[in-house]
Each structure stands twice: as C-alpha cells, then as structure tokens.
C-alpha cells in the first residue's frame, strides 16, 4: 500500500532463490506509471537483486505520480473556475437576454441577435481550447481573430452583429428568388447557402450562384439540361445581358432576359403547368437530396436522370458501353440515342 492505495504486483520466481525465468505481472494503473517513466521497464525491475530493491524503485515512483495527479487536478479546477467567472462576466456585458442556450459546464453556448428585418441569427461558441471556436449561418465565414488575454466574447459578438447587417441585401435577394421561382435545390435552404437551382422549363434547370457582397449583380449561372434545349436560352442571355437591372430582383431579370415567366412551385402544385422532374430510371424526384440533372440530348426524348442512376445504368451494360477516363458513353435508356455521363460526385 502506498499513500493509502493498493497497487497489485505479482512476482513469480519458479527457481527461487535464483532469478532465472522470473516474471512480473502488475495492475493496469501500476503498468501505466512504469510506462511513463523513462528508462524504467519490466526488464530493469527484473534485474533487481532483491524484492526490497524492487519495492524501493517503485514506491518513490508511485508517490511522484500521485503528487503530479493532485497538481494537475488542482490546476484543472482553477482553470474551470476562471473560465466560469470570465464567461459569466462577458454575458453580463452582452446581456443575458441575448443568451439562447448553454450546456451544463458552459463550454458551449449560443448567443442570439435580431437584425433590422427582425430575423434571428445564432452565434455558436465553443470553449475548451486556448482559442474559442465561433460559427454562424452566414454566407461567408466571419474573421474572428482571437488574441489570448486581450480579445473578449463581447467583441466577437459585436462582429457577429455587424456581419448580420452586412448581408441584409443578400438574404432579401435569396428570399425573392425562393418566392418567385420553383427552387429545386437546396431542398431546405439555409442562410449560409449562396446558390439556388431553379426550374426554367420542362427538363431544363439553372444553377445560380449569388455573390453575398453584391447580390443583385448578374450571378454566376450553370445550365442543366440537353444541349439542344438549353442553347436557345443561353443565346438569349448572351444577346441581352446588357439589359440586366441591378435594381430588380434576380428572378425578374431572368424573366426579362429569357422572355418567359419562370415556373413557380405553387403553379405546378395546382397543376396549371406540366413539369416532370422525376428520374426516368429510379422514378423518384430526389436521390440523396439531388434532383435529376442529366438530360438526354435527343430533342425528341429529353428524359431526365439522376447522375448516379444514369452512370450506374450505363456501367451495367458492359457490351454496349465504353469508358474514356472516368466518363462513360452508351445509349439513352429510353430512345437509345448516344448519351454520356461523368461519375457522380463523392
């Protein structure tokens, strides 16, 4: 027993008093103590000339380990107390009404704020390391520069509030887009999402990437559909790009450039327009959250497929499919005209 605690040590001496073929077994805690002492292992202990010498090596080692454990425990307690007091003081400054939630040991908390449009935003804070971790559902990461000893939680909260006001126009533009179009992706947009995939016409969609700092300028766009079908719309935009008006909503500008009325989810739900977005292989609209985005280029076919479904379909037809790099070439499952497909994103 050392310091009122038992440590199990089993010493086997089959040829006593000779040390030949002797062995040592010990408890896990004692093994841990020995393994953390440089230059000391079982072989060193086995070379001791007597049990007294063996015990003489172990007892000081156990005592030192016990002292170090007590020291570390006291330091941890002191750190926790300091963290609690400093965090509570910070929340006093920010205002307790801004605290949305906190976990049992104050290592994670959520601070809320309402912007000028009365939308709520949440700042997630995680303590535990020397530098706290901050995150929020903003389209761009906030540059939280934390300097140990000088930075404060209230300063980070102020940056969080300022950033919310900075993105008011962006969130307004995205809400207008959601209200004025049939949004295919993301299925449940967050305030972090800077893109929308919208329906333009049957089997034709458009991916729009909006700049959060300049949301009403002409966005980055990617056409999805058969080349024959989308070429007409692409040419219209190229021919009329100069009429884009940054004072108008994005969907209104698109309707002007494309000379169409964009389909809305409400109209389609009421059956006033005939749009088909199901994959013609799996017969479902969404697969892993994605809508069909590959369309047959044959204008008399125009069937749509999930990338994954088409890729796997073509790969399964070994005799009629050829592969070039990762891309597969084969026949459309419906019209049997040539169709190709890149591998699905992983």
TrEMBL record:
Domain RING-type: 279-336
Lineage: Eukaryota, Metazoa, Ecdysozoa, Arthropoda, Crustacea
Protein name: EOG090X0G12
PROSITE patterns assigned to the protein according to its UniProt record, in alphabetical order: ZF_RING_2 (PS50089)
GO biological process per UniProt: interstrand cross-link repair; protein monoubiquitination
GO-annotated cellular components: Fanconi anaemia nuclear complex
UniProt-listed InterPro entries: Fancl, FANCL_C, FANCL_d2, FANCL_d3, FANCL_d3_sf, FancL_WD-rpt_cont_dom, UBQ-conjugating_enzyme/RWD, Znf_RING
Gene that encodes it: EOG090X0G12
Gene Ontology molecular-function annotations: ubiquitin protein ligase activity; zinc ion binding
Keywords associated with the record: Metal-binding, Zinc, Zinc-finger
Pfam families: FANCL_C, FANCL_d1, FANCL_d2, FANCL_d3
UniProt-listed SUPFAM superfamilies: RING/U-box
Metal-binding is among the record's keywords: yes
Transmembrane segments: none
Domain of life: Eukaryota
